[in-house]
């Protein structure tokens, strides 16, 4: 099967899992950006996460979920669309307590669940890749009142782009480890448009931050949004 015949996320995971995964030490910090060591950590999800229930939409290899479960004492569910990524995350961190990895589509998982969370977060995960008018209300059904939704997405002005003027997704690409580029649809909103969609879903936006990575030029690369459930 050619790369063009599989999902970009499966193709990405397939290349990442070409070698057997092994147990890894728990990361010392949570990463929200493309540049490790920059930006905030897990504290933006709440001042005391011990015993709190968290959900990650798009956990990938599980690094952030493992950090939050171990260093902050949270009970974390890491969800990823691709089963290969979930297998990889379990190989890395399956030995840890307070941590569960699940394969599934973010929207379908939320629609089938009745669990309530103290925070839901996404780091270049499902948010921005699933229609926000569907995903954000589904997320709101599972965040306790007054609790946090936080997510990072690629900055809409990265590479000198202009943010779209409407709510339609635009064509983007996923860069695979071997530098192959595969197309993907992305909702590339600026902060004000995200605020509109969050408000419609029952959140109030509390902060926006943008981050740069000098390796990718002078334009901002990452947009971090935090919101609170009304």
Could you explain the architecture of this structure?
This protein has 230 residues and is α/β, with parallel strands linked by helices. Helices cover 24% and strands 29% of the residues. Strands 3-2-1-4-5-9-8 form a seven-stranded mixed β-sheet, sandwiched between helices. α4 (106-112) packs parallel to α5 (132-140) and α5 (132-140) crosses α6. The chain is globular.
Describe the structure in brief.
The protein is built from 6 helices and 9 strands. It is an alpha/beta fold and 230 residues long.
* Structural domain tally: 1
The end-to-end distance, rounded to whole angstroms, is 47 Å
Largest sheet: 7 strands, mixed
Task: Report the C-alpha radius of gyration, rounded.
Answer: 17 Å
